[in-house]
Design a protein that fits this description.
mainly alpha
């Protein structure tokens, strides 16, 4: 239950920030879920590979996706 609450909090904070930067509410919520899921999985991949490459690659693509949905 505690993990679910933390994920919910992260998603809520991210969605609010995305909305503040021009994303539509539904899209912001979906992106927030995607970001949390991507980061969580890439951290596991980084540990397994002993490399930051998965996180670096995911971050680059997430930044592009976010830029396309916000006005900044």
């Amino acid at each position: 239950m505690a993990a679910a609450e933390v994920f919910e909090q992260w998603e809520s904070l991210l969605a609010a920030s995305l909305r503040e930067h021009g994303a539509e509410a539904e899209q912001a919520a979906q992106f927030a879920t995607l970001i949390v899921a991507a980061v969580e999985e890439t951290v596991a991949m980084c540990r397994a590979k002993r490399s930051t490459q998965p996180l670096d690659q995911a971050a680059e693509q997430l930044q592009a996706l976010i830029a396309s949905a916000t006005r900044d």
